Every structure is written in C-alpha cells, then in structure tokens.
Amino acid sequence: MPPPMRSPLDELGLNLTRRRFFEQGSHLLGGAALASLLGEDRAFANASTGSAAVAIDRVPGAIGPHFAPKAKHVIYLHMVGGPPQQDLYDYKPKMDEWYDKDLPESIRNGQRLTTMTSGQKRFPIAPSVFKFAQHGKSGMWVSELLPHTAKMVDEMCFIRSMHTEAINHEPAICYMQTGNQIVGRPCLGSWTSYGLGSLNKDLPTFVVLVARSSKPEQPQAIGARLWSSGYLPGEYAGVSFRSAGDPILYINNPTGVSAEVRRKTLDGLQALNQRTLEQIGDPETRTRIAQYEMAFRMQSSVPDLTNIASESESTLALYGDDVKNPGSFANSVLMARRMVERGVRFVQLYLNHWDTHANVVGRLKSGCKDIDQACAGLIQDLKARGLLDETLIIWGGEFGRTVYSQGGLSKENYGRDHHPRCFTMWMAGGGARPGQIYGETDDFSYNIVKDPVHIRDFHATVLQLLGFDHQRFTYRHLGLDQKLTGVEHAHVIPDLLA
Question: Which terminus of the chain, N or C, has fewer Cβ atoms within 10 Å?
C-alpha cells in the first residue's frame, strides 16, 4: 500500500525542513533504512493486512495511487449548459406519437421545476426532430448530428442514466466538477494532480482550456472557482491557458528584459520566499516558489506546445477544418492531446453553447458541428499514438434537458429546460469499457428505469480508473478526512470498467 495521506500538519512539517530533520531525523533515517532493506513494496505494506502494494511507478512528491492505475491522464470535455440527451444519444421514437400532448403527471411525479417553466400552463411534449440510427457492434443509437462520433461508438462507454440533485447551472457545474454544489472544494483535476503528481517539470500538472463556440449564445459563467484546489495546497489548482494572444499572461518577458535579468530577479524572489518559508512554514509560500519556477520554465515549453506546425496534415484532418483556428474546440482538443503527450495529467476543457432554452434545432446544428469531428478525431489520434489505453476521455454536461418544450413549440423547433433526473455522458480509453451502453430511461427520457449513476458513483469510478479507492483517497481538513465523493454512499460501477 502507498504511504498514508498527508494531513495539513504533516504538510506544514514538511515545509520546516531543517528543523523537522533535526527533531525527527532518527525516525526519517530509520524509515529510509527500513525501505532500503525490505524494498519499497514491503515498506509500504498495508498495516492492517500485511499485504504488499501492487508494484507501481511513483512520482516524487505525489501521494501515489492505491493500485496500478489504468488511466494516467484525463481529458475532460465539459459541455457547459447541459446537452439535450434525447436529441443526441437517448433515442425516444415513441415520443413522435406524443407531439404537443401534455407530459403525464405520473411521469413528472411532482418533480421540481426551474422558475423558467414552473409558470407554464402546459408542458407539451417536443419529440426530437433529428433522425437516429444504430451504429457499431454495440448498436448504440446516435443522432444524425454526430456522424463522425457515430463511427467511434465501439471505442466509447455510454452512461444514459446519470442524475443529479442540482437543477441550476452554477451549483450543477460545481457539483459535477467538485462533488459538491457549494464552491470551495477541490475539483477532480486537483484531486488527480494531488494523487498522481506531475510527469513534466516544464508544464503544469493540471491545465484548463475554455474553447470558443462558433456561434455563442446564452453562455454560462466559467471561472477559476471550478478549477480551484479548494482546501488542497494551491499547487494543485488548474492553470488556465488563454484561447487568444499569449497562452499565459505575462509569459513573455517585457521589452528590454532579457532571460538573464528574469532569472536573476526570480533568484532574488526565491531567496526571500525561502527565508519566509523557513521562518513561518506556510505551504502557500512553497507553492509560490514552485509556481515562479514553473512560469520561468514555461517560457520555453509553452511556445513549443502551442506550435502545431509540426503536426502532419493527416493528423490535422482528423480534427476538422477549424483545427487551425486558435481557441476553437477542434484546436483546443488538439492542444489537449499535445499536453497529455508531454506529460500533463489532467486537461479540463469547457465549451459554452448547450443552454438550449430555445432554438434547440439551430443551436444543436452548430454546436454538434463544433465538437463532432474533433471528438472522434481525438479518439483516433490517441489510439494511433498508443495513448488511448492510458488516457481517459470524459464527455458530458452538468444535467440534461426536458422532453417537454419551454416556450413555443412547432414541428421544426422547440426549447428545452434543465432536467437533472437523467442525462447522458460518455467515456473512452483509460480503462473504460469500450462498446458499453449502461443505464436506461423511460420512453420520455424523464426518469431512470435501470442502473442509475449518481455523480458520486461517477467520481468513484473515475478515481478507480486513476488507481484510487475513493473511500481511502482523503485529505484532512477542518478535522475531517475529506473526500471527492463526500460522506454519502457512493460506489464504483464495475460494468463501466474494461
């Protein structure tokens, strides 16, 4: 087993390096001697069972996984706003017979509504106007809007029974990212960074990209609260890359400031921060030292990362015509692949566009065009490079959409309100079971009838793929062993694992 999770007091002690060494040096040297005599696996054996841990690669400074991870990297594609599942992946042909009929109360069953539709006198059914077809050996139904993605269904693991309690965007996105509707908790990317550590000293462990929609409409607020490290040390927060201009603000030296001058300035700052660290032992000071050094190294690594001139035309063609447009979804997805190729652990990519209260038909056509070829291309590209098996791709939003129309309804168009009771997500690679279709909803895509998956279960399953037992992957904060999955029951879904 790996060493136990560090508490904040332990973190503080690790920062008081000189004093800590002389006070407890005998214990440290004894432990080192024991490890050298017995070997790492026996030295970190489970104290309760005595069984040795699985032999796994350990990154210096990382907590280390509980068992060998199937996924070493994550690319999380979050569709901000909540994609309508019944127009994309949850085929409901019986709804054609229900056009403009009221949603039965037995189906709604008193479900909480948003203020945007709670005042409607009627809840008329809006069948999807899009055609569906089955694809692959799995027979997954996919909308005509996603022809490229449809070709990849046997590489993908679909969950059609996701559900949440959150019904509005801010708490729902926060819930999906951090396991809690209240801001201030660490997000999945920060937990991954904390647990697995960095594979590249010249790039951040956790990077955030916010792609631009080709036809933006009703965007939701996306900000650093979603990639915060919360109560984890600040070094585990996400680093946001910009979609236009310099990828990182102030990454280039000002006119007249040479690299030598910048290095001398940083050395002076580091000396001052190191003195403060030795005197006070604040972990945030250690984070500041590390981030200054990372920023200096990124002045060389980031220009290379963002220069796609080295990519072959055949590779660029996988992602579509928009791939050379900086900030586009296609370009951002290619950046994500280049990042994991260079050792970035977690790439969080957001795309605003999916808050379809009106004009579902028009907005889905442009939104799906933005993502379809790029998502399929990412899977193909990672597979061709031998990276798909160790890279987990996640696609989904914060909730689903209602089968009834918000506002006006016609045969050609309609709107859909927020719907937390069921929605669809998919995964690919990284140990997710390919060709899997998990969970079922009723004929209205309104209630789950088989194999529900709560956000907590989803997080537990993702952590399992990353090599962590979600019950034991904790951090001591406010006197409690805090977890991504919280205190309520959560369980790993074995059918989602390869």
Answer: C
